[in-house]
Design goal:
The chain is an all-beta fold. The protein has a domain of 91 residues: Immunoglobulin-like. 0% of the residues lie in helices and 46% in strands. The protein has no helices and 19 strands. The strands form six sheets. Strands 4, 7, 8, 9, 10, 11, 12 and 18 form an eight-stranded mixed β-sheet that branches. The protein has a three-stranded antiparallel β-sheet with strand order 3-5-6, with no helix packed on it. It is rod-shaped and about 160 Å long. It starts with a strand and ends in a 15-residue tail after the last strand. It holds the Pfam family Muc_B2. This is Mucin-binding protein.
Length: 245
C-alpha cells in the first residue's frame, strides 16, 4: 500500500494476530502511515454555457493524516482530513493546443484541458501533491446550405432567377485534446417553399407552380427552369346572310 512507510520501532513488542508472542527468530514489521493524498480519475465534460461551477472536491478521494507508530492499520482505519484542506493550482490548454497557461479555475463553459494540482502541507512541513486533468470537449454548430435555383425564362427574352436556400444544422463535439470532431449529431431538416410562376399576358408557363419540397442531408442542389409558350389566338369568323324582300 503506498501510504505505508515501513519502520523499525525501538523496544517494540511483537504480537501476532492470535495475541501471543511470535517466534523471536522471525522478523516482524511494525508500520506507520505516512501523509498521503489520493485523487480520483481524470474527468471528462462537454462545454455547456449553463454549466454550474466545477466542484473542486470532486477530484479528491481522500487526504490521510500520518498516524502514530503502532500496529498496521487498513485504509478505512486511517484518519482523513477534510477534502477542502488543500491548495489548488490550475493550468489551461485551449482546444487542440499544446501550450499551457495559468488559470484560476476549471471553467466548464470553456473547452480545453485543465490540469488541476492539489497539495496539502502537514504540520511538520511535509507537502504531498498530485495532479489530474479535466477534459472539456467543445461544441460547435455546423451548417449546410442546399439550394434550389429557379430560372424563369420570360417571353421578352430575359431571365429571372429565384434562389431558395434551405439551411440544415447539426451539433458536433470537438475533442479537447485534438480539436477535431469527436462525434456528431443528426442533421436537421428544412424545406423549399412552393413557388408560383409569374403571369405574362398571352403566355402560359410550362410549370405553373413548383411544389414545396422537404430537404434533408441527402438532398442535392437543383435547378428548375420555367419557360413560356404563346397562347393560340382564336379569330372570330363572320358570315353575312342576306334576305332580299
Amino acid at each position: 500500500m503506498p501510504f505505508y512507510a515501513y519502520v523499525t520501532l525501538p523496544l517494540a513488542t511483537y504480537v501476532n494476530d492470535s495475541g501471543t508472542k511470535p517466534d523471536p527468530s522471525i522478523w516482524y514489521i511494525q508500520v506507520q502511515a505516512v501523509p498521503a493524498l489520493f485523487l480520483n480519475k481524470d474527468q471528462h465534460y462537454v462545454a455547456d454555457p449553463n454549466a454550474k461551477p466545477w466542484d473542486t472536491t470532486s477530484m479528491v478521494d481522500a487526504i490521510y493524516e500520518a498516524d502514530d507508530p503502532g500496529p498496521r492499520k487498513n485504509r478505512d482505519q486511517l484518519k482523513q482530513l477534510p477534502k477542502t484542506d488543500v491548495d489548488i493550482s490550475y493550468t489551461y490548454q485551449a482546444l487542440g493546443s499544446n501550450d499551457a497557461v495559468k488559470a484560476d479555475k476549471v471553467d466548464l463553459t470553456k473547452a480545453g484541458i485543465y490540469t488541476v494540482t492539489y497539495s496539502h502541507t502537514y504540520a511538520d512541513g511535509r507537502v504531498v501533491s498530485d495532479s489530474r486533468k479535466v477534459y472539456v470537449d467543445g461544441v460547435n454548430q455546423e451548417t449546410k446550405a442546399i439550394t434550389r435555383t429557379i430560372i424563369v425564362h420570360a417571353p421578352n427574352g430575359t431571365d429571372q432567377t429565384v434562389t431558395q436556400k434551405a439551411t440544415l444544422t447539426r451539433e458536433v463535439i470537438l475533442d479537447a485534446t485534438t480539436g477535431e470532431i469527436k462525434s456528431a449529431g443528426k442533421w436537421s431538416t428544412a424545406k423549399w417553399e412552393a413557388y408560383s410562376a409569374p403571369e405574362f399576358k398571352g403566355y402560359t408557363p410550362d410549370k405553373a407552380q413548383i411544389d414545396e419540397t422537404a430537404v434533408n442531408k441527402d438532398t442535392q442542389d437543383t435547378t428548375v427552369e420555367i419557360s413560356y409558350t404563346a397562347n393560340e389566338i382564336t379569330k372570330q369568323e363572320t358570315k353575312d346572310i342576306t334576305r332580299t324582300i
